[in-house]
Amino acid sequence: MATRHPVHEHSAPSVETSSQRWVILALLFAITVINFIDRQTVSVLAPLIKAAFHLSNEAYGRIVAIFQFGMMGGELPMGLVMDRWGCRIGMCAAVCWWSACTGSQAFVRSGTQLAISRLGMGSTECGNFSGGIKAVSETFPVKERTLAIGIFNSGSVIGAVVAPPLIVYLAQHDGFRTAFFVPASLGVLWIVLWWLAYPKHGTHEVKGTEKAQIPLKMMLQRSSTWAVMVCRALIGPVIQFYWYWLPSYLYSARHMSMTRIGELSWIPFFLGSVGGVAGGWAAGWLERRGASLPRVRKVTMYFSSGFCLASFAVPFVASPVVALMVISLAIFAHNFLSANMYGAITDLFADEEVGRATGLSGVASGLTGLLFPLLTGYLVDQGSYRFVFMIAALMPLAGTIALFVLARQYRTMTRVQAAQG
What we know:
Growth Hormone, Chain: A, 81% helix
């Protein structure tokens, strides 16, 4: 089979005006914020939920893992929906379903019922990224895509910034069950705005069904597909560990009160949002100076994955404040890395494949995301977060190495550019 170069096959953006592109990006950012408020609600309330439902750390880990199982199971179907139905319909359907599941958590009476609600959420919340990355590929020119991805992906950490003070406030004033209604309501409002803003005829419709239905089997035969799958499988669970376990770590290992957690735990995630934008900006800066796409990805991803090694130090520092500073550096670096990891998907796949490529990488990330919380719960119940932080330090670098070892297409791009130069 001849090697394809999808990076040269991307169509022109289907949104003609710059202002419309940025409105769409603003909405992608907003729904990512809402999505991660949804996700963080359970982790922020973990001490209260575990007490209310009499859950051990291992049982709580199973609930997190069930959510990840839903994410893993929903990734490919969501990618197919985005490629075949388009982002306008696909995103509305995904947000409608996960908002309903979010609201349903206010009525659960046991850990099992909570797990079922989280399963439903996870099965469609993954559409945020397959739809978002596809929407960026449809509406932004190539040199702006990593920055756009970095901006909307930074909504994940902004959601984590907003979640602790918002959720703690709601829990303290109206009970923890009311905290589930706010993000559910915001999701419904967002659906209306997206339907009005996104163009009725996306790139998938303009190109026709012939390209939109490239066989999945063909995609799985490419080294690039396996490269992004292994890369995301290793990188994805690390930030999820911080989302779902940071409040519990600060509460149980660093002995912070819930009020103190609400005051301080937003800081690492705020810096993470800065990291996501910085990662996109750095990629664009290098491209404008003539760096090839393989060079851009190698510089940005190895640089940031090196800083992710800071997680090694977290269990060994005495001061909770210093530990939080180290965690902040690791999360900044992780989101810098993630912007370029998602950007690599738009490098290696044509627009009509981006939804499914993102979905396939999400399946791989979902599998490790399913296993990592179980491992975390087991290790924490054995008495220490130390080994968890060590594993979290190494996984981003391992994922970066895997991407460039497996993605033969990046080496082909480099040879083509050298021949043309």
